[in-house]
Design a protein that fits this description.
The chain is an alpha/beta fold. It is built from 13 helices and 16 strands. The chain is elongated, with a radius of gyration of 25 Å. Bound molecules: 1,4-dihydronicotinamide adenine dinucleotide and 2-oxoglutaric acid (AKG). 1,4-dihydronicotinamide adenine dinucleotide binds next to helix 3 and helix 6.
């Protein structure tokens, strides 16, 4: 029986997928696996029992990935599972930025007791007029699951789309409409686009990427959309550019004191993935990944350990080992097994950066003694009998 804990509410259609061999616990310390959305785990103590974290979503900047890896805790996310939800909000953001739709709605509400509201509206409406997005240049920074969907949808809305992503995956490149211009220098996006939207993960390399200098390069009257993470943008510089009339509107999904209430900033309260469909997709995907890991030891869509998959174990036993990516580990593991007279039927070893993962299937049942010996090899972070 495995136990899981939810740090945020997780869609029941996902949790139902756990089945009878799983029990939800309110006690984080008891959990074999944790499910999380945006809860900040960075300062949390990680219980010794915890084997895996399932991020029901894309961004993992709320999770201490290296600390997890060092404790042999495998962290998963659910690539693309909420990308359509975010894409739709970005499209809404572009439309809301193009005309003063929000101002118009607020004006009508302010006239709710005025019997002449209809007549007055015809006079007042010109102050809320704007322009169309069709024919405008859209620059997209980051062409992953969300960026590629925004790109394709925007071309269907008649926009001229420019995409920048030096690390684009082959799949994402295949999925992009041929009409999208491939940009090699992000400054070309800053200099030429009417709308700029950012869809990159928050990392040390992307923090503050939309810098004061980047904003200065942008066209007068540009609309900037940020549905990725607030700290990707130098928001103090953004507010100055809004006040100076350089940036027409800043659309963001992240409320904070720097931008809240600032004129021409339209903020949604982190709603990108808050659709029934996205929440369900993420929950189902995260639970599937966790089950496959807990029951079979397989790793798919991890963000701190390598992908590693040996399917369902058909041998007598399977052990898995999270360890440092250093020489001589396999020799030490196989030596311990051969000393115990164990015959290996299958073995896979994969590495990712400083960490590695080894799966070993065996002809005889693994003993606690063997696992204790393997766990004591220097560089081993966690050894587990899966079967
Ligand atoms: N507002 C919301 O509710 C949501 C926000 N997000 C945010 O959006 C981000 C992106 O999500 P996905 O598209 O699903 O992730 P993804 O991993 O599919 O795509 C990210 C893309 O950014 C590219 N990239 C990385 N560094 C770059 C750089 N310096 N310049 C240009 N491109 C770069 C990568 O190559 C990749 O193609 C997430 O990391 C998260 O922070 C994601 C989902 C929901
Ligand atoms: O779960 C959420 O609502 C947040 C979604 C998000 O920001 C992400 O997936 O990166």
């Amino acid at each position: 029986m495995f136990q899981y804990h939810c740090l945020n509410p997780i869609a029941s259609v996902g949790l139902d997928g756990f089945g009878d061999n799983y029990r939800q616990t309110d006690d984080f310390k008891e959990a074999d696996a944790v499910l999380v959305r945006s809860a900040k785990m960075l300062d949390m103590e990680l219980p010794g029992k915890l084997l895996a974290v399932g991020r029901a979503g894309a961004g993992v900047n709320n999770i201490p990935l290296d600390r997890c890896a060092d404790q042999g805790i495998v962290v998963f996310n659910t690539p693309g599972a909420n990308s359509n939800g975010v894409k739709e909000l970005v499209l809404a953001g572009m439309l809301l930025a193009s005309r003063d739709i929000v101002g118009g709605i607020e004006w009508v509400n302010s006239q709710k007791d005025n019997p002449d509201v209809g007549k007055l509206a015809e006079k007042q409406k010109k102050q809320f007029a704007g322009s169309e997005i069709s024919g405008k240049k859209l620059g997209i920074i980051g062409l992953g699951a969300i960026g590629q969907k925004v790109a394709n949808a925007a071309t269907h809305l008649g926009m001229d789309v420019y995409g920048y992503d030096p690390f684009i995956s082959v799949d994402a490149a295949w999925n992009l409409s041929r009409t999208i211009h491939h940009i090699q220098d992000v400054n070309d996006i800053y200099r030429n686009c009417d709308f700029i939207t950012i869809h990159v993960p928050l990392t040390d390399g992307t923090r503050g990427m939309i810098s004061r200098e980047a904003i200065q390069m942008m066209k007068d009257g540009v609309v900037v959309l940020n549905y990725a993470r607030d700290v990707l943008v130098d928001e103090e510089a953004m507010v100055e550019a809004l006040n100076a009339g350089k940036v027409k509107r800043y659309m963001t999904d992240f409320a904070n004191p720097t931008v809240a209430g600032v004129k021409n900033v339209i903020i949604t309260p982190h709603l990108g993935a808050s659709t029934r469909e996205s929440e369900d997709n993420c929950a189902v995907a995260a639970v599937k990944e966790l089950k496959n890991f807990l029951e079979n030891g397989n790793i798919k869509n991890s963000v701190n350990y390598p992908a590693c998959d040996m399917g369902v174990c058909t041998s007598a036993s399977r052990i898995t080992i999270c360890h440092k990516n250093v020489p001589d580990m396999i020799r030490q593991f196989t030596r311990i097994l051969s000393d115990a007279g164990v015959n290996i039927t299958d073995l896979t070893n994969k590495s990712r950066g400083s960490y590695a993962y080894t799966m070993i299937d065996m002809e005889t049942r693994a003993s606690e003694q063997i696992i204790t010996k393997i766990a004591s090899v220097e560089g081993v972070l966690r050894a587990r009998i899966v079967k």
